[in-house]
Amino acid sequence: MMRICHLRRLARLLAFACMLFCTFGVGSLAEEGDGHSCNKDVMFIFDASGSMSGTDWTNKVPRIDRVRGALSVVLPDVTPVRNVGLIVYGPGPYNKCDNIELRLRPGPNSAERIMAEVRPISPAGRTPLTAAVQEAADALMIKEKPGVIVLLTDGEETCGGKPCALASTLKAKAKDLTIHVIGYSLGTDGAGIEGRLDMRCLAEKTGGLYMAVETTEELIAALRKTLGCPFLAQAVRPLLRLEA
Fold it and tell me: Domains of the chain, with CATH numbers?
């Protein structure tokens, strides 16, 4: 009986998806609000540097917990229709700059796997964000297929990397690469003027967005915009819940 019910629900989901594609067409459903295609794989870069354990004057919840909370809201809407992977930088001894870990390659329905990776992380290290972007580009195989990198950071590069120079290098060799940068709660001490310009350059040289956010609500909005696919995800999600 349960198998019959499951098949019926699956049939409804397929029928609904067919209706969407017949009504709107593949092209219109494949475009995000900011013009990037939903069928491009995404690597999300999670900042676990020591500063992410800090709090702000108006919110005493550690930044890393607010990021985890925002991801738990956004990822279930995105991952049913887009392959998302995860790179983490920062965990480990503070004086290390090779603390970059590829936790998950882009794959479907990865929300819970990503959350399982970020929940236990204890922020401690430095900010090798340039090297993390390079690793994300390698994981996306940018010479062979299009991809998107979403970098979230609450500070500037602290390991000698050159984000702007890397953007030029990657853009020249990539088939189709876009890098979005979310600067979270940078405040007055999170990054200097040069650091912010570097992060903006990293995004803009690849046709991406640089978004400076301060509140959890702004963070959620930035994640939705950069990880993308809002229309299709919101339409399909109610039916996906029926499968739970």
Answer: 33-229 (3.40.50.410)
